[in-house]
Every structure is written in C-alpha cells, then in structure tokens.
Specification:
Largest sheet: 5 strands, mixed
Number of strands: 5
Distance between the termini: 29 Å
CATH architecture: 2-Layer Sandwich
Strand content: 15-25%
Number of domains: 1
Number of helices: 5
Shape: globular
Helix content: 40-55%
Low-confidence stretches: 184-189
CATH superfamily: Ribonuclease H-like superfamily/Ribonuclease H
Structural class: alpha/beta
Length: 189
C-alpha cells in the first residue's frame, strides 16, 4: 500500500483480514486439488484470548494441506471432530493416517470406522518421524500467528488462521490451474 501512496493504519488491515480471510479460504477450498490418501495429522498450540488452545492440522504425504481445527481441548472429542471435518473437506477417505503418540487418535479412528465415516481398511500408524513434514508445515502458520501477537478471540483466531492456511495453499500450488512450485535444492548466494 505504501508503494501506491496509500497510508493505512495496521488496524485497518487487521479488520480486512477478519472480514475477507474466511471468504478467501472458502473460494480457495472449492478450487483445491484432492489430497492423496496418506495423511499426517498433528496438533500444535496457539494462544487465544489468553488461553492455550490446540490447532489441529492435517496434510497429505505430498505436503498438501487438508484442513485445520481450533479446539480448546486436546482430547478424544476434539480428535474425532477434527478427523470427521478433514474427511468431509478432503472428499475422499484416507488409506492411512500417520499420528504422533497422542492416545486419542486410535480411539477416534476406531469410533469413526464403527460409524462408517472411515473405511474399515484405514490404518492408524503411530510413527512420530513420519509427521516431520507436518511439523515443518506448522512453521508457516505459527510464524504468522506469533507475528500477529496471538489472538483476542476465538472467532478472530479462526478467521485469521483461515487466511493463513488459504495463502499457504496458494503458495504450495494446490489450486487447479496454478502450477506447482519448483523448489531447487541448490540455493544461490
């Protein structure tokens, strides 16, 4: 905005984020490529209204974002709600879900299998090293969350994280018609 000679207060941009990030996220989600059937699921924590809350996130084995959920608790109910939401968002049932050592995931998967929301052949693989890709993907969201000095409300946190995730999806090239980024192993100095 400064390049164009427009002076704005940072609060104006914050209001734009709260207003337009969910709209952007919704439009981007309708244009996303389908994820593959090998998922990585994990949670991290963020501060919302002075309380630590859990940000559940899922990506596929190629690093493509599937979905996220902000929850005040890290328990069986939250894990089950998140997995149900991720299956609905992906539009396809996973073949395998890689999780860390959190004991709620195997129980949540068993309950979703019994309810018919997951296929009976879906495996729950507890291998923390397989979630390294997801742990690295948390960085992009957490870096922006910390820079925004956390959140004052749950609604504001959800809206803002939706915008961060939407821009992360675009950056990864997950949108139909957008080329996937080519990352070079060799960096120029």
């Amino acid at each position: 905005m400064a390049e164009r000679g427009v002076q704005l207060d940072h609060a104006t941009i914050a209001r734009w984020v709260l207003r337009y990030a969910p709209v952007l996220n919704e439009r981007i989600r309708s244009q996303m490529r389908r994820p593959n059937r090998s998922w990585r699921v994990d949670e991290t924590y963020v501060r919302v209204a002075g309380q630590w809350t859990y940000l559940y996130r899922a990506i596929d084995s190629a690093g493509n974002t599937i979905d996220f959920l902000l929850s005040p608790k890290r328990d069986l109910t939250a894990a089950k709600d998140f997995l149900r939401l991720a299956v609905l968002q992906a539009g396809e049932r996973p073949r395998v879900i890689n999780v860390d050592g959190h004991p709620a995931y195997p129980s949540a998967l068993d309950q979703l299998k019994e309810a018919g929301e997951l296929g009976q052949t879906c495996r729950c693989r507890r291998a923390p090293y397989l979630n390294n890709l997801l742990e690295q993907d948390h960085r992009f969201v957490k870096k922006r969350v910390v820079a925004s000095q956390w959140f004052r409300s749950v609604d504001g946190g959800l809206s803002t994280i939706a915008g961060y995730e939407a821009m992360n999806i675009v950056r990864k090239g997950q949108i139909h018609g957008c080329p996937r980024p080519m990352f070079s192993a060799k960096r120029s100095s």
